[in-house]
UniProtKB/TrEMBL annotation:
Residues 125-175 are annotated as: Disordered. Its main location: nucleus. It comes from the Eukaryota. It is found in: Nucleus. Residues 141-151 have a biased composition (Low complexity). GO terms for cellular component: transcription factor TFIID complex. It comes from Ricinus communis. Pfam families: TAFII55_N. This is Transcription factor, putative. Residues 1-111 form the TAFII55 protein conserved region domain. Keywords: Nucleus, Transcription, Transcription regulation. One of its GO terms (biological process) is RNA polymerase II preinitiation complex assembly. Belongs to the TAF7 family. The keyword Nucleus applies.
């Protein structure tokens, strides 16, 4: 160990190079005695990386990734530089978006309109193709009969004195 972070891992008669790396974040380890209650056992901040004999040692002290696939590039994502945004611009855009959602006109907004210019020849050919496709789609559809209209007049014999009630009007006192 020259720098205190590299060494040799020995298992049986085989020797492997090893290095101590810092993890990008602290990992909590837990164990259980009864498969229901967890007990915190440690906060892990470093790991020993054992390599094959021909592999090169890492150049940096801090490991770039975490222990699991979702923690890939964790240090870069967590400690990335904040974007340089003008606070006044952010306030103005937020105000404009709130105005647009409220249905109010927005001041100093640039609206880009894209217009498609079609020549009369290509338009008529496309229109004929669309009409043919539409007729083919409608031919395969079955027409469904319209539901019969219910009369608005209540039958006097069925509910002579009480108004008609729905299921939601009944109260449930069982709760």
């Amino acid at each position: 160990m020259q720098d205190g972070r590299s060494g040799t891992f020995v298992i049986g008669n085989e020797h492997f190079p090893a290095s101590l790396s810092d993890l990008p974040c602290v990992v909590e380890s837990y164990k259980t005695y009864d498969d229901s209650a967890l007990v915190k056992t440690a906060d892990i901040g470093q790991m020993i990386m054992v390599r094959e004999t021909g592999d090169t040692a890492p150049d940096v002290v801090e490991y770039r990734h975490g222990l699991t696939p979702p923690m890939r590039d964790a240090r870069k994502r967590r400690f990335r530089r904040e974007p340089d945004l003008n606070p006044e611009l952010v306030r103005r855009v937020e105000r404009d978006l709130l105005n647009i959602m409220a249905g109010v006109t927005v001041e100093n907004a640039d609206i880009l309109l894209y217009c498609c210019h079609l020549s009369s020849n290509s338009y008529s050919a496309n229109e004929q193709e669309e009409d043919g496709d539409q007729n083919a789609r409608n031919a395969s559809k079955k027409t469904t009969p319209a539901p019969a209209a219910k009369p608005d007049v209540q039958e006097a014999a069925a509910n002579a004195e009480e108004p008609e009630r729905s299921d939601s009007d009944e109260s449930d006192d069982s709760m």
